[in-house]
Specification:
By secondary structure, this protein is mostly helical. Helix content is 61%, strand content 9%.
Length: 114
Amino acid sequence: MRLGSLAGNCPPPKKTITSWQEVSAALEETDTPILNNISNDIVSTDDIDYAIGALTNHITTVVENSTRVVPAKSDRKGSHARALQREVKARMKEVRNENWNDLMSEISLSHRAY
């Protein structure tokens, strides 16, 4: 038996990102070959099964085409947001310091120590 790190043998974690706006836009398009193959006259259970299968395949294809897999630690939106947040905090700190310095200069000019 060999003991060791389990992380060394595991592939890097991944996450799936789906663009639901793309899915919505693609599903609004009704003139597609898959949907055109569905009969307008559904009379038997076989016709129902075929229509359900065709619709399911169409939805599956649309979702797969609008999905991508990325590394789990890749958080581009978050890192941009955090960078912007740091920048805003730094600027706010500057403004507070400037305001404080202005206040202190006003106080020191108008008050005398005894």
